[in-house]
Design a protein that fits this description.
By secondary structure, the protein is of the alpha/beta class. The protein is built from 8 helices and 10 strands. Strands 6-7-8-3-9-10 form a 6-stranded mixed sheet, with helices on both faces. A hairpin with a 2-residue loop joins strand 4 and strand 5. The longest helix is centred in the C-terminal third of the chain and has 18 residues. The structure holds adenosine-5'-diphosphate (2 copies). Keywords: ATP-binding, Nucleotide-binding, Transport.
Length: 227
């Protein structure tokens, strides 16, 4: 479980991005942070892997205060996917996915074999595995981004507007693929979007953020929709 207890983030310029957030994210849930731009969704998510440190309050993963955990170690258990897939331009698709496993001690051969399996799982046409990122479409790059985040088999996956830069048809495809993947993998997913339709399609729990970085509602999609 990921828990936020009284978490506040104020940036050095005085902006109050997240205000006294209390939230418990269940293991293996698909939790979506939704709300208008600027309401603290990304800041909240980035505090889970310590890319951002809270000003006050405590975040725990499996009962352990993450401020006491080495950030590099913490991140080995947390996959991260962003809008622009963030792939390494000078490595092929398969090597992008194999990078972290190789850094953590897997042989290149094993890591490449595992990478091909993960690429297949995310629905990438495997004939693209030896291409470079710039030779892929936006949608294909996002699939590789998801595969890379999954390569070390982390229990937690953070996804920050991962599909918002691709065209609507491809986006629907990726959303469907994500649901299929989650049915199979059962990760603890935290997914940020400003699109309520995407939130209710994907999430089994929806955290609705409002202006001033406050949590306004936290419930199942049917309850959020009827509110
Ligand atoms: P969201 O993800 O909901 O769009 P963010 O978490 O990115 O919201 O931002 C929350 C608020 O914090 C916004 O007002 C934003 O402008 C501000 N903010 C984000 N990052 C910084 C920063 N590094 N310095 C100052 N203000 C920031
Ligand atoms: P989408 O809009 O569906 O994301 P694109 O129009 O960007 O797709 O790409 C369509 C196809 O062209 C894809 O199969 C992709 O692999 C291929 N492609 C795109 N850019 C390149 C490139 N620079 N070199 C080779 N193939 C490319």
């Amino acid at each position: 479980m990921i828990s936020f207890e009284g978490v506040t983030k104020q940036y050095p310029d005085g902006t109050l991005a997240v205000d006294s957030l209390d939230l418990r994210i269940e293991d293996r849930s698909f939790t979506v942070f939704v709300g208008p731009s600027g309401c603290g969704k990304t800041t909240s998510m980035r505090m889970i892997n310590r890319m951002i440190e809270p000003t006050s309050g405590t975040i725990s993963v499996d009962g352990r205060d993450i401020s006491t955990v080495d950030a590099v170690k913490l991140r080995l258990g947390i996959g991260y996917v962003i809008q622009s897939a963030g792939l390494l331009p000078h490595r092929t698709v398969v090597d992008n996915v194999a990078t972290v496993p190789v850094l953590t001690g897997r042989s290149r051969k094993e890591a490449r074999r595992d990478a091909m399996e993960v690429l297949e799982r995310v629905g990438l046409d495997l004939s693209l595995a030896t291409r470079y990122p710039s030779q892929l479409s936006g949608g294909q790059q996002q699939r590789v981004g998801v595969a890379r985040a999954l390569a070390a088999d982390p229990p937690i996956l953070l996804m920050d507007e991962p599909f918002s830069a691709v065209d609507p048809v491809v986006r629907e495809d990726l959303q469907t693929e994500m649901l299929r993947l989650q049915a199979d993998l059962k990760k603890t997913i935290v997914f940020v979007t400003h699109d309520i339709d995407e939130a209710v399609k994907l999430g089994d729990r929806i955290a609705v953020f409002g202006t001033g970085g406050t949590l306004q509602q936290y419930d199942t999609p049917d309850v959020v929709l009827s509110a």
